[in-house]
Prior knowledge:
The chain is of the alpha+beta class. About 45% of the residues lie in helices and about 35% in strands. The chain has 6 helices and 8 strands. The protein has helices spanning about 1-25, 35-60, 70-90, 90-95, 155-165, 170-175; strands at about 65-70, 100-105, 110-120, 120-135, 135-145, 150, 180-185, 190-195. The chain has a 5-stranded antiparallel β-sheet. It has a 3-stranded antiparallel β-sheet with strand order 1-8-7. The chain is elongated and about 80 Å long. It starts with a helix and ends with a strand.
Amino acid sequence: MKKAWKVIRWIVLVSLVIAIVLMVTKPSRPAPPIPEADKKQLSSQFEQKLERLEQTKASGETGATEQFTPEEVNASLEDMTVNAEKAMGPGAADDVKTKVVGINFVGDQATGQFIVNQYGKDIYVTMSGHLSAKDGYANIELTDAKIGNLSVPVSLINPRLQQRLAEPDQREKLKLPDFIADLRVENGKLVIVEK
């Protein structure tokens, strides 16, 4: 009995060490980095497509759609992040607790990777799910989640994520412009539908 307990104890210890190593290792990016030379153009394309949807709504048409590539979305996110950091002043980036690494669209799912600084260590969180619009807000239903390279059951993450996204300060960040009726991922592209 004593020998069996020692074996079980070592198995548990080794399993915990492996889990911790997997959690703190840096996973591969969901999408390749965008070359600096292309960022401005891709971000501009994203803005132009959104403006077309808004103009279509203003002209009285309904149901128009635009498709966005992962590169356009990532370039726009980077551009917005840089502009927000400039507006907040020097050192503001250090106060941000979550940073977006990148987003990719595969099939009908969006995959996003984020860095969360916890206890002075950058922890990579990768989540995949289905995007939609609900009551004028962006919504995501998780299908996969990882911390570092360790897969985590969605049932552990999704309730906490949905609770966090329902908080008033986070909820307002997910508010969609008035001219957007729906959003989803189709064939590896973000599709936004105008009201």
